[in-house]
Design goal:
The complex is a heterodimer of chains A (315) and B (200).
Chain A: H1 5-22, H2 26-37, H3 40-66, H4 68-73, H5 77-91, E1 95-97, E2 100-106, E3 113-116, E4 122-125, E5 130-135, E6 140-146, E7 148-152, E8 161-165, E9 168-172, E10 176-182, E11 185-192, E12 194-199, E13 207-210, E14 213-218, E15 223-227, H6 230-236, E16 243-250, H7 251-259, E17 265-268, E18 277-283, H8 287-298, E19 302-304, E20 308-311
Parallel strand pairs in A: 6-8, 17-20
Antiparallel strand pairs in A: 1-2, 2-5, 3-4, 4-7, 5-6, 7-10, 8-9, 9-12, 10-11, 11-14, 12-13, 14-15, 16-18, 19-20
Chain B: H1 10-36, H2 41-56, H3 67-86, H4 91-105, H5 109-113, H6 115-127, H7 131-142, H8 147-154, H9 158-178, H10 187-199
Classes of the chains: A alpha+beta (315), B mainly alpha (200).
């Protein structure tokens, strides 16, 4: 007997509640995939259910933003980001001389900030980062002094948009990409369009990067390019919405990522655990929630301390 | 509690959000159009699920100019395919469908600006749920309480929380798809209604 559409819908919705309760795990993913493979309509029903779930989340957010009492008792991430923005706007120094408009933005540990630039571009500034922006009639220059930023660049052929990260340069006309300063160089992820990247004293050797590319440019060596899956770029830039998105990263990598955002550090006390691979989407400011789900998924003991969270029993 | 419910990567998350905000608001209009094209209720449900399945298979949505037009095209193609298979080709219907698809390709500013109104509508639907369903939605979605803790607070077991959660969500899905009036849904399909009636 052909399964009825309403039976499929019921099962799809039930899957979502189960995932919400148990969290993701390879076993659950496998069971879900098996179910989805049974009938093409199931994939449709599941997407429809997920979409409804996301709409419900957004509808619930209406209250979080609008009801002052609700916001006060449990500040949502959006509200907190909003306040951070106000403080930052006040500290952004603007000066104008000789047609040069210069502005500075920085973020504290754990702070993530979106800024509209004067030329119509948008910038998202990740945790513990600093940029200086210099707009002239010929060029839009962004100096990334520290950290990581993503740019959605407004098109303007006359005024190229150049990011300077140490000795690394990235040039765009109208496109979207991120630059992160790392030990010894900078990493570039391109989300839209095309950018050119080079090292300051090697202008002749420019790498042309297109959407979906990532590259690492060393301060004193060559350019390492690689094509990434679009999904990987999106995951790596999940910080723009205050999230860390893991799809098989090791515990060691995940801990390093969380520690970029929090004073309360995650520590892996049992070295044998660092290679465990993890899946899931977490808030950058919730290392405790992450540690709890590590406890559930790999069965490691977790000690929640004031200044640090220890994962795994120390030997 | 912190991890999201989703089994998906970033690209897929974008598609899910887009389906929720740009496609679902149009589903009721597409269903109404299918009814007027004399498609049976069961076939409509199947077609809609198949259409969502096509969307689930997308790698990206960057090429989609108008979500509602795109969704309509998918449903229309699925219906054509089904009609070819069943060899009951109603040329008038096909011609009419072509005209409609072209008309609904144009982006509608009214739909684009209706997103907030849409969310407010969903809020009202949550408020209108049966009491225990509503409590579960408020606790889970607004206050972020885990299912286990909801069960403790309400003094029921976790399977009851799941059952009521499933029930509540399906009630909302049903209300959304039956609500033909959303965004004053279809001037386009309104014309089709008149034509269909004349033909009858």
């Amino acid at each position: 007997v052909r399964e009825r559409a309403d039976e499929i819908e019921e099962a799809a919705v039930r899957w979502l509640w189960r995932i919400d309760r148990e969290g993701r795990s390879p076993a659950l993913d496998a069971a879900l995939e098996a179910w989805l493979d049974g009938d093409s309509r199931r994939r449709g029903a599941f997407l429809h259910a997920e979409a409804t779930w996301s709409v419900l989340d957004r509808a619930a957010q209406l209250d979080a933003v609008e009801t002052p009492s609700a916001a006060a008792s449990k500040p949502s991430r959006r509200v907190m980001l909003g306040l951070g923005g106000a403080v930052l706007a006040a500290s952004a120094a603007g000066l104008a001389f000789l047609g040069l408009r210069q502005q500075r933005y920085d973020t504290k540990l754990g702070e993530i900030r979106r800024v509209s630039l004067d030329d119509g571009s948008t910038m998202a500034l990740n945790t513990h980062s600093a940029v200086r922006i210099e707009m002239t009639s010929q060029q839009r220059m962004v100096k990334l002094a520290e950290g990581e930023a993503w740019f959605q660049v407004a098109k303007n052929r006359e005024r190229p948009f150049v990011v300077e990260a140490g000795r690394v340069r990235v040039r765009a006309v109208g496109t979207a990409f991120s630059v992160r300063r790392l030990e010894g160089g900078a990493e570039i992820l391109v989300t839209e369009g095309v950018v050119e990247a080079w090292r300051e004293d090697a202008e002749g050797h420019r790498a042309r990067l297109v959407a979906g590319d990532k590259a690492f440019i060393a301060n004193d060596a060559g350019i390492t390019e690689a094509a990434a899956k679009p999904s990987e770029i999106d995951r790596r830039l999940a910080w723009r919405s205050g999230q860390i998105d893991l799809a098989g990263e090791t515990l060691g990598e995940a801990v390093e990522e969380f520690n970029r955002y929090n004073i309360r550090k995650l520590v892996v006390a049992d070295a044998a655990l660092t290679q465990e691979r993890l899946y899931g989407v977490f808030r950058t400011d919730d290392p405790e929630g992450f540690a709890r789900s590590v406890r559930l998924s790999i069965g490691a003991p977790v000690v929640l301390g004031e200044t640090e969270i220890r994962i795994g029993a120390s030997s | 509690m912190a991890e999201s419910l989703t089994v998906m990567d970033g690209g897929r998350r974008k598609i899910v959000a887009w389906v929720g905000t740009h496609v679902m608001p149009h589903e009721s209009a597409v269903r109404a159009w299918l009814r007027r094209s004399h498609v049976s209720a069961d076939d409509i449900d199947d077609l809609i699920q198949e259409a969502y399945c096509k969307l689930a298979g997308l790698e990206t949505i960057d090429h989609v100019v108008s979500a509602d037009g795109y969704f309509f095209q998918i449903v229309r193609n699925l219906l054509l395919e089904q009609m070819r298979r069943s060899r009951v080709v109603q040329f008038e219907t096909v011609a009419e469908m072509d005209g409609l698809a072209a008309a609904s390709d144009a982006p509608s500013p009214e739909r684009a600006t209706g997103a907030r109104r849409e969310l407010e509508k969903v809020r009202k639907l949550i408020d209108a749920l049966p009491e225990r369903c509503r409590s579960i939605f408020v606790l889970r979605k607004i206050e972020g309480v885990s299912q286990r803790e909801i069960a403790e607070r309400l003094g029921v077991n976790e399977s009851t929380v799941e059952n009521d959660g499933v029930k509540g969500m399906r009630l909302i899905m049903q209300a959304l798809r039956e609500d033909e009036a959303r965004f004053g849904a279809s001037e386009n399909t309104g014309k089709s209604r008149a034509r269909t009636r004349r033909r009858d």
